[in-house]
Amino acid sequence: MDTKTTVIASEDLARQARICDEIKEHWRGQGIVPRAYVDTYGCQQNEADSEKIRGMLAACGYEMAEDEEGADVIVLNTCAIREHAEQRVYGNVGALVHTKRRHPGQKIFLCGCMMGQPHVVEKIKKSYRHVDGVFNPHQLWRFPELLRQALSTGKRVFAAEDSAGSIAEGIPLLRQGGVKAWVSVMYGCNNFCSYCIVPYVRGRERSRHPEEILHEVRGLLQRGYKDITLLGQNVNSYGKDLGLGIDFADLLAEIAGLPGDFWLRFMTSHPKDATKKLFDTMAASPKIAKQFHLPVQSGNDRVLKEMNRRYTRAQYLSLVDYGRQVMPELVLTSDIIVGFPGETEEEFEDTLSLIEKVRYDALFTFIYSPRKGTPAAEMADPVPRQEKNRWFDRLVTAQNKISEEIHLGYVGKTVKILVDGAEDGVLTGRTEGGRLVRLAGPTDWIGRFVDVEITGHTTWSLEGKPKVQ
Question: Of 166, 198, 219, which marks where a domain is finished?
Fold first, then answer.
């Protein structure tokens, strides 16, 4: 793989914009308003990429559809992080045979991390011939020309060339909702954790220039967004490739200094690169949410070394201690993999003891899923799945107990939340720490900060009543 990042030239992006205009005129000439459906799997970075795909489709004249039926273009933005996610994609792609049979002119595209794996692309070519186009994350900026090619020639289009990655500024965005927004500050990953496919499918770390990020955030604040999440596979590496003397903590401070009433969040952090400066910057600004997602993956040093995580249990716990020292109200979440190849029950017990010591507010827990092309996929893995399931259940039970105890501690307290939606006639919102709160109130509160007295709890959420407004 080439390791040099490509910055997409403005004239190349202008050409894509002209192609969007051509496609729009094509449909207008037929008196048709085409419809498009974009389905997203996986992480927030995929959600952010889907906003770009929707933006390009809107520039091509498409209206967004609620589902696949009757859509003129379908785009599935895929995830490769676990086998279960891939199997869901294959199942849903297979089912699209029926919608295309009912709508023969429908164009189906697959993109995202799965399409960064050559063996997956070959499988799509051979076994899913109703798919019209494939592009990997590096080729996303070219979607308009790929769409035009599929429309004009009727032939299948594959743009899945291996690449270190690119940065393309100025791609149109169509965001969903008007309260919360994601902003990518960097792309790719250099860490090569032994279980992870991300560096192979998303390329090397590459940072956006701070001026571009600040410009985007200013625009969001002017349009009324109140909850901004900065995204990167490892945000702590931000700026290392720019040579500007600006790191992620500096970027956070600059954004937090913008005028307006908003919360600023970020994910994800790698513990080996998290610094005291970052915690201090969070503690110093009332706009930076006191929420930290710090994936530990395992509580055992041997397993951490086999995972190529490059920190120890003690170093991780030291980070947690410092974060809570400067931010006693810090809400801490993490990722954990159960049943990594070669892990023993005694080593799993170290993970269990770590979560009981740290007492996370919430965990994202996974049973190890081998990814073809990663070092861990070649490691001996003698522990049967049934045993890994047993460990997993123990971990989830322990964390659920901790989460429920933490949520019980909220009852009777008044917290500030940002109301962000409604479900079944009940408003939903998030605390500064990202805890879900349900409450009664008018829908015109959506997008507002509201003080709420917490009156009840479950393992996963809180219930409250608004203070007098």
Answer: 166
